[in-house]
Design goal:
By secondary structure, the protein is α/β, with parallel strands linked by helices.
Length: 605
């Protein structure tokens, strides 16, 4: 046996006369402070060792002589193959130490904290992640972190009471069975409310920044379980005054429009945790949640009064004002919605069950003045059980939802005649404009179901900056890169109808109407009262004037009918309501999503 390198002999594991097997370690050499094992390449008997331990050898020097043997080593012969190699039945001490240390980061190491959590009817951060991610897919980053408080606490205390520094971060797959391993990958971050109240510490900010960088570079969607109390004042292991040089909030904000970002909240979410939550595309929250930019201590410290946590930003308030997009009963429901939401950005699915499209013929009442629920049209257009309504507590004049048509994800919005007759007020405009931006950023085609008498008007409405709010629809629509399809169910009046059709009736890939549709520059009743004021005033009040009004209105309805609009090519077709889904399927098959454009428009509000 010759030395493969210049080295020092550290240890001989054989002596002359020993019989060795193939693979046995014969000698250990040291070079550059690293040890190298030399093993037998065939069964042999050692004849002579040519150097002693401690001597230096050069590359190519003969270290030992041996003769080949053909029978295995006899029982009791020296066995050097097990030197420094763990037995199969045991665990090496270094691995055992790691396993023990990792075990202390898990829920089972803190049964009392977990029991308190369960007593509140809530789950732990790790339980939520296990439910969200496909089984066995989650790999954790930064598990061994502890709070940056070594100057005031012992290492044992930090390991026992600040596991992972109160935040679990990593990458897993979500919906891989439906969308495959590559499209299902997602970054997941969960503040652990059982550790320092889920506050934001130095180490978990570093963990967050690390994972957000990976998410942005690899274009991974992000799910944030945001429960927690905001910034943590107790971290002392760094020379800072106010700690305002944190990059986490900017890093999180940079994800907007680049990847899908989902926020999930149960319990209390205040201050910095709430700031991250507010950057999310969608906020899913439980009924028992509270969300606020400051918790009780901050409110009291600001001289604003003393409040219980439950009094600050309860879910009923935050759902009504639009902070919460989807309100659910519990964390299991929140996780289920998060999985469903992400699926719309993971691609199409096969074998999507179709709805009963014949029901569309009965959606709009024959009585043109009778209100109805446009959500019935949404349900009858999309694949069965695929509809996910968003922001249901806010902007009642517009319904927005994600859904699938023929397995393909789409965004769906519709006027709501049950609220202000379908007129678009400031909240409805804001809701619709933001929804258009969501779909546009992530490449989802948009289907708009139109039934509106126009933008809401009047002194009270204008006091809410109506001009700026409703104009958002035009500015946002002008930047759309996704296919847009419009279906006029009944009223298509004025600027409001144009706002619902991406800025004008010829802006969409197609604008079609049902036979129940009617059109005009403004509401037909108002058009008659204004346009025929002299004629009406020339007739005595009462039955005569009423009869004239009805005749003139009937004429306007006829002139503004869907068929008349189609004859002048202001719309593309009048269709059987039951054929709407087929039109959309064909339109989706042909229309393409363009490459993202640089964001240059200035939002009007």
């Amino acid at each position: 046996m010759r030395s493969p390198l210049a080295a020092q002999i550290v240890q001989w594991l054989v002596a002359p006369g020993d019989r060795v097997r193939q693979g046995d370690v014969l000698v250990v050499l040291e070079a550059m402070k690293m040890e190298h094992e030399l093993r037998a390449d065939a069964p042999a008997r050692v004849l002579e060792l040519l150097f002693a331990e401690g001597e230096v050898v050069q590359a190519g020097d003969i270290l030992l002589r041996a003769e080949a043997v053909h029978d295995p080593a006899p029982p009791g012969a020296r066995d050097t193959s097990v030197a420094d190699v763990p037995q199969a039945a045991g665990v090496r001490p270094d691995l055992q130490r790691l396993q023990t240390r990792l075990g202390r980061t898990l829920d089972r190491a803190r049964p009392e904290a977990v029991a308190r959590r369960h007593a509140l009817g809530l789950r732990t951060a790790r339980e939520n992640i296990a439910d969200l991610c496909d089984e066995g897919s989650f790999i954790e980053y930064g598990a061994l972190a502890v709070a940056a408080q070594r100057s005031r606490r012992s290492e044992e205390d930090l390991i026992a009471h600040t596991p992972a520094d109160g935040m679990v971060t990593g990458i897993g797959s979500i919906n891989a069975a439906q969308h495959g391993a590559e499209r299902s990958r997602a970054a997941v971050l969960a503040y652990d409310a059982t550790v320092l109240a889920g506050t934001q510490g130095m180490r978990n900010h570093q963990k967050t920044d690390r994972l957000l960088g990976i998410a942005l570079s690899q274009r991974l969607p992000v799910v944030l379980f945001a429960e927690g109390g905001g910034g943590r004042p107790g971290d002392t292991d760094m020379p800072i005054v106010a700690g305002l040089h944190v990059g986490t909030f900017g890093a999180f904000a940079r994800l907007s429009g680049q990847v899908a970002v989902v926020g999930v909240v149960s319990g209390r979410c205040f201050a910095g945790n709430a700031a991250l939550l507010g950057c999310c595309d969608v906020v899913i929250a439980t009924r028992g949640s509270n969300i606020g930019m400051g918790g009780p201590a901050m409110v009291e410290g600001g001289g604003l009064g003393v409040f219980k946590p439950e009094e600050i930003g309860p879910s009923a308030v935050q759902h009504a004002n639009g902070v919460i997009d989807v309100l659910v009963e519990d964390e299991a429901g929140a996780v289920a919605v998060a999985r469903q939401y992400l699926s719309f950005f993971q691609g199409p699915v096969d074998d999507a069950p179709a709805p009963d499209v014949l029901a569309l013929r009965e959606v709009v009442p024959e009585n043109r003045l009778r209100v109805y629920d446009t959500r019935a049209a949404m349900d009858a257009l999309v694949d069965v059980s695929s509809l996910l309504p968003l922001r249901t507590g806010f902007g009642a004049g517009i319904h927005t939802a994600l859904a699938r048509i023929g397995g393909r994800p789409v965004g769906l919005m519709a006027n709501n005649p049950l609220h202000l007759g379908g007129a678009i007020d400031a909240d409805a405009a804001d809701k619709a404009a933001r929804f258009l931006q969501l779909c546009n950023a992530h490449g989802l085609p948009i289907v708009s179901l139109v039934d509106t008498p126009g933008f809401m008007v009047g002194p009270d409405t204008e006091a809410r900056a109506q001009v700026r709010h409703v104009s958002r629809l035009f500015v946002v629509a002008a930047d759309l890169r996704v296919p847009f399809f419009s279906v006029v169910l009944r009223k298509g009046y004025g600027l409001g109808a144009m706002g619902m059709t991406a800025g004008g009736f010829h802006a969409p890939a197609f604008t079609v109407a049902w036979p129940t549709a009617e059109f005009g520059a403004m509401g037909l009743e108002g058009a008659v009262r204004l346009g025929y004021r002299k004629e009406l005033e020339a007739v005595p009040e009462g039955s005569q004037r009423d009869a004239l009004f009805e005749r003139l209105l009937a004429q306007q309805v006829t002139n503004g009918s869907a068929e008349q609009m189609a004859t002048t090519l202001e719309i593309d077709a009048v269709i059987d309501p039951a054929h709407t889904r087929d039109w959309l399927l064909k339109g989706l098959a042909g229309a393409k999503v363009s490459e993202p454009r640089p964001g240059r428009f200035i939002d009007t509000w």
